[in-house]
Amino acid sequence: MNKQPLYKSKQKRKATNLITNLPESGHIPSPVEWQEEFRYLPPEVSPENYGQFDRYTAPHLIEPLNRLHPDDPCTHLAIMKSVQSAGTVTVIEGGMGFSAQYKLGSSLFLTSNKGIGKVRSSSAIDPLIDNSGLYKLLKPTSTRMKNKTADTTFYKEFAGGIKWLITSYRSIGDMKSNTFQYVFCDEWDEAGAELADQGDIAGILEGRTMGVHFFKMIYISTPSRMETSRIYKAFIDGDQCRFFVPCPLCGEPQILELKGMGLKYGLTFNRKKDPGTGAKILDNESVRYICKHCGREWYESSKLDMMIKAVKEYGGWRPTWQDSEYTPKSPNHKSYHAQGLLSPFLPWSRICQQFMNTKFGEDLLLFKDFTINYLGNPWARIESSKSWKDIKSRSEDYIRGEVPEGGLRLYGGCDVQGDRLEIIIIALGVGMEKWIVDYQIFYGDPTDQGNPCWQALHKFAYKTTYKIRDRPIHISKIAIDCGFNPKNRRPKDWDSKAHTVFQFVAPRQDLFIAVRGAGEMQGSFDIIKAMRINQDRGGFQLTKRYDVNTHVIKEMILRHIDELAGPQAIHFPKYTILDGVKLEIADEFYRGFLSERYQEIKPGIMGWHAFYTRNEPWDTTIYAIAAMYLENAQTWDDDWWHNYMVGLTQNC
Fold this sequence. Notes:
It is a single chain. The protein is α/β, with parallel strands linked by helices. It folds into 3 domains: 31-240, Rossmann fold, CATH 3.40.50; 252-316 and 346-382, no CATH class; 388-651, Nucleotidyltransferase, domain 5 (2-Layer Sandwich), CATH 3.30.420. The strands form 9 sheets. Strands 27-28-26-25-20-21-22-29 form an 8-stranded mixed sheet. Strand 20 and strand 21 form a beta hairpin. The protein is elongated. It starts with a helix and ends with a helix. Residues 485-491 have low confidence and may be disordered.
């Protein structure tokens, strides 16, 4: 009985706190509506766009901003942006003010370091409070100490127990023992990979939201290198929305792009001679956009109207993850690419001038800066890229089917496609020097063991000889593809490919081996490695296939591709004979040989990217080299080759 008054007293205090913390109104407008009603941007904050906030200054940011409403199911919001995108002012500062006004929760604002945080607090956060009426809500959570303030540089307190903490990724200890509904990560790419003895910073930050029933993680940043960019990873973790602008002439929506990087449409310009110096300079009046659909031209004066129309009539933003290999982590992960051509504060003429400064992409350092800061794209660093035209130009004066001087032993690589078999024959010499000797295609249906294409391959492999030192020499070993690397997300030509190849190879193991490209074989120093296979599924008498470290072979080829002779060099024939006529080998072969390049394909992962679809000459060469390594050809020295030729002569 004595405890009842104390119990009632506690409940009364709890009820009073709940009432005090209730929003002023039951209706919570959208964040963009709050800014239009309450927010004023003074000249000191926005010298070119000061005045009452207007949603149509940057219409493409309306949707991302409104994702911060508590009724929106979005929990993770990423905006990968260019410089001068208005993202921080509109989304971060607007979101913080909106959440404080309606007592939706506390906000954590992070930037690269405390020095920048201090500047941001003074030059942007404080004016936000002063010019949106939020100063009326500044109120210490506790009034026990007379001199306690609710308004310091790095910490603010508002009515309803709302807190703002402004800190940096390097001072993560400041936020311990605090819980936040909104976590705003400005310039997210500036965050380190991890904190000493604490793990990944992204997990630490999200941990600050575990004690609340609703939360928002907001990441905004220009990107950096694709392999390390945090904002790019956050972007591909979401639905990868891109903004589609309708052409003012034909009405067809499209993503704004820059012409001059392999596109026949997009933002373009002309140059003119400077009257004083004679140098070529940008003709500002020529800056225009060529429509992807109708091919007609329109100018930047139409851009804002088209963006507003896109928002009102077309929705503007569209998810594009279906067109990529990345699936959103969840329906609550939303991501946007606020690229430079959309920015209200980046004139198209300036973008064109910056592109000119890169020498149209030739100056890689300037082009990297342009790609990141002006286009808002991560930098995909290309590691290895060669031109097929250079290879063709130095092809040598021998005919396909001939083995030039130096070629001593023959190997083959065979690729299996849905309607054909393709095989390359390579002559090997001292020091792993190689000569491409022959290339054949056998058309048919490889899914049927009785199809003539398999019979043609058998006959070619066992009957064909090539003249080496005036003697007919048979092929020593042929590696034939039995399946794709399971790590690569692409469909097989047909489901039973491996079984069909195994059935062909099983009775021909004296000459053929079944191989599979395995990419980069982690933890293995093997170029080709035997793997057991399950006979029960196919009924064939074959116990193993071979996995090929294609990454190493590709790297090896490109590392030596420019060498004209000597160890590891590769030689190419210039001619072929067709119906008795001597012709140059078609460009298709050289294109197919140099069909891949090594580059960053996803954050933190380098890989081979195919940029030409017909890559069979490339793949068959890799398989043929794998067959060489199966026989340990890389260990054969001059004495071995001498003894080999002596034995060959005696056998003949």
